[in-house]
Amino acid sequence: MHFKPDPRYLHDCTTDIIKTTAVKHLSEYQSNSTTILPTMLPVPSGVMSRRAWASSLIVFLTFLGLCSCRSQRPPLRNVDPPFKQSFNISQVSGSAVSYGPNSSVPDVGKFYRTLTLHNEILYVGGKSHLFSTTENLEMREEVSVPSTSIFKDMGCEFCGGNYIRIIQPLPDGSLLECGTNSLVPYCQKRSTKNLSSVGERQTFDGHNVVPSLPHQNSSWLLLGDSETTNQIFVGSYLVNSFGVLEEPAILRAVLREPLGRIDVQLKTKDSPHTVLNGPQFVGDPIEYQDKIFFFFREFASEHMNSGRIVYSRVSMVCKDEMGGREYTTLTEKHFVTFVKARLECSLPGKYPYYYNEIQDVYRSTVDPNVVYAVFATRSPGVASSAVCAYRLNEIEDLFWESNFLAQKKDKELWLEYFEDVNNEELFSPRQATCPNTRAYTDEECRKILALGQLVYRKAQNSFPYENQGPSFHRRRNRISPLLVTHGERFTQIVVDEGVVDSVDVMFIGTENGTVLKAYLSSDGSEARIVEEISLNSEGLKAPVLTMVKSEASQAVFVGTDIGVYKVPFQHCQDYTTCQSCLDSRDPYCRWTGNSCSSGRTDGLQDLENGSSDLCPDNKDDKILFRTLPKSQSRAVNFPNHPVNLHLVAEAPRGRNLRPVGVDCSPCASLPFTHFRSACDRREFLVMHIDGSSAGTDDCFCSTVLEMDGGVRASANFSLTADSSDPVHASKRDLEELATFDVEMAQYKYELQEWKSIVAKSCELRDLQVCPLGGCSNP
Question: GO:BP terms for this protein (predicted)?
Answer without folding.
Answer: axon guidance; positive regulation of cell migration; semaphorin-plexin signaling pathway
